[in-house]
Amino acid sequence: MTANEATPDTRARRSAAACAATRTLHRSPLHIPLTERFSALAAAAPGIVGADEASDVYGDGVVATLEERVARLLGKEAAVFFPTGTMAQQVALRCWAGRTGNATVALHPRAHPELHEGDAFTAVSGLRTVHPTDEPRLPTADEVRDFPEPFGALMLELPLRDAGFVLPTWQELEAVVEAAREREAVVHIDGARLWECTPHFGRPLTEIAGLADTVYVSFYKSLEGLSGAALAGPHTLVEEARVWLHRYGGRLFQQFPTAVSALLGLERVLPRLPDYVAHARVVAQALHEGFTAAGVAWSRVHPQRPHTHQLQVWLPYASDVLEEAALGQAEETKTFLFGRWFADGPPGLSVTEVTVTEEGLGWTADDVREAVAEFVRRLPR
């Protein structure tokens, strides 16, 4: 997704409109006042950690508790907490490069490290990347099996966010992992949003993560934590990763607010994700129906049946036109339907991402269609 920059004025308007909205499909933590977030975390902490539990120091205490919880959830021997997923994945793949003797990583060209991390794999960690496919989906088993040069690791982003939060079928995922094994490559899952993949696959987290040698998960993208990530895998690799965590500057003195917020997400948000996914499918259908009924010449809701609780909406207008319509609707009606729009693809085509969480569960299909009609009314005809 092209990262066209919004002006400071647009960002301020969007933030103010989101904070003031009385109806939204998803209320981002970024739009909750700072003091309210502090208070909520402090109020919830006694239910997550012991009242007299000591604070963490360099990764012990509540951070170690979080690591043990993640390892159990993913069915891995061990896990290590990282301040960022960017760091976690660099460390994981450079550790694997040392073990396999091959620093080449096969991944999708729209995977997060390729689009959003400033070429960190190459510039910082000495890794080289190759692309088995450039189709807007994960690679197939044949594309992995027949790729013309060797690679040490196959990295699979589940779901592939910039292609529309898309996932393969379970059978396709098994096949692509087997193809990598045939090539004696390790498999690493970029699971920043892995938590919400279980409804699509119809499998528990342990079984999904069990296909890979290592898995990275995020605590803020779906679980509404403050920040942070974890890398899970074999005990020996995790212990090596701890060494590199220190070398990369990620061994922080104290991290208890982040760790508590992550545990809170695992306790309260994780069990709700299947409900969000189910309702995202209702919302997606209603969005499609709403644009059709409003007479928009062309629109695309992608995927038509979302694989997770997130999806894309594409419209044939410039991004600034769509931004103004969305902001006008939010400011005047207090209904925040769409957030930021991005220019992507051919000129005049723009895309936005839609996320359905707790606030969205209260929307009926009729509510969505009515909001779409109000949004379209603000577009030039």
Number of helices: 15
Structural class: alpha/beta
**H/E topology pattern:** HEHHEHEHHEHEHEHHEEHHHEEHEEEH
Large-scale geometry? globular
- Tell me which CATH architecture of the largest domain applies here: 3-Layer(aba) Sandwich
What's the CATH class of the largest domain, please?
Answer: Alpha Beta
Mean pLDDT: 96
End-to-end CA span? 26 Å
The proportion of residues forming helix, as a percent range, comes to 40-55%
| Low-confidence sequence ranges | none
β-strand number: 13
CATH topology of the largest domain: Aspartate Aminotransferase, domain 2
Number of domains: 2
Q: What does the largest sheet look like?
A: 7 strands, mixed
- Beta-strand content bin: 5-15%
Walk across the major sheet and give the strand order. 2-8-7-6-5-3-4
Calculate Rg over CA atoms: 21 Å
CATH superfamily of the largest domain: Type I PLP-dependent aspartate aminotransferase-like (Major domain)
Family: Belongs to the threonine aldolase family.
InterPro entries: ArAA_b-elim_lyase/Thr_aldolase, PyrdxlP-dep_Trfase, PyrdxlP-dep_Trfase_major, PyrdxlP-dep_Trfase_small
Keywords: Pyridoxal phosphate
Pfam families: Beta_elim_lyase
